[in-house]
Specification:
The protein is α+β, with helices and mostly antiparallel strands. About 30% of the residues lie in helices and about 25% in strands. The chain is globular, with a radius of gyration of 23 Å.
Length: about 280
């Protein structure tokens, strides 16, 4: 399995992915889920992938050369000459559909679903940054100020901290820290996600980045974050008052009179009706 997250901010973009792939408990391998497309002073794009590894690798290979017809009569549209991230995302969708046409029936005959999910984001000169989540059918949705991040793979463990912290105004470095906390929470709760991690941070209107890092078990920052997050979380938990059941003195009682909803009724005999 895998976990990938991408965040779109006013200041730039943050991308983070793990690298674990497993086909059973004893078949665990490392495959990188992130790829960077960069043409300095023209375009910067990042692709994250989850799902069936053979499908995602095929999509990534075809994406390099996939072309869409330009209905205005111009040159075929590729990710390297697309005038917008929307058109580049269309090219990615076309690459996914091409792999589906080639492999879906054979996979189905073998009892394997056509399962792939991707996040594609970046900036092309002349327009703002954009971030898309792309599905198995090649269709996609775009991040908005109300939903400034996307996750694919094992997303549930790392979602709460993103919901509490991330807004479009969040500074880039703070968002990078939040993404790493999100990943650390996922690593703690799910063995199918594992190190090393790949992280990319992109500053708006730069069209290139040198903030590319691979994070392994020996990375001092990630070790510090992992230890501090666990310790501080426990300290905050311990600072919260326990619920009072016996009527003791408290400013925040748990047992209070209810006007609309009532506590659950106990069933004490087989003759009683549930409703």
């Amino acid at each position: 399995m895998t976990y990938c997250v991408a965040i779109k901010l006013n200041a730039g973009l943050v991308f983070l992915s793990d690298s674990r792939t497993n086909a059973g408990l004893d078949q665990i391998s490392t495959f990188r889920k992130m790829i960077i497309y960069e043409k300095p002073n023209d375009r910067f794009m990042v692709l994250l992938s989850a799902g069936n590894l053979s499908i995602s690798q095929s999509v990534r290979e075809i994406l390099q050369v996939e072309q869409l017809k330009d209905h205005d009569g111009g040159s075929p549209i590729t990710i390297w000459n697309a005038k917008s991230m929307f058109d580049a995302a269309r090219v990615l969708g076309s690459a996914i559909r091409r792999v589906h046409e080639r492999d879906a029936d054979d996979l189905k005959n073998s009892g394997v679903d056509f399962n792939v999910a991707m996040i594609f984001g970046g900036q092309i000169k002349g327009e703002a940054m954009r971030l898309f989540q792309v599905y198995s059918a090649g269709n996609f949705i775009e991040a908005t100020p109300e939903t400034p991040y996307f996750q694919i793979g094992e997303s549930k463990y790392g979602k709460p901290v993103l919901d509490r912290v991330i807004t479009p105004e969040t500074p880039l470095e703070e968002a990078a820290k939040c993404a790493l906390v999100s990943m650390d929470s996922t690593l703690k709760s799910n063995l199918s996600v594992g190190l090393p991690l790949d992280m990319v941070v992109y500053e708006v209107d730069s069209f290139e980045t040198n903030k590319v890092v691979c994070i392994d078990n020996d990375n001092p920052y990630f070790q510090m974050l992992h230890n501090n997050w666990g310790t501080k979380l426990r300290q905050v938990f311990d600072s919260i008052e326990d619920p009072m059941w016996s009527g003791g003195e408290t400013k925040v009682p748990l047992l209070t009179p209810l006007t609309r909803n009532q506590p659950l009724r106990k069933i004490t005999s087989p003759e009683e009706k549930l409703i």
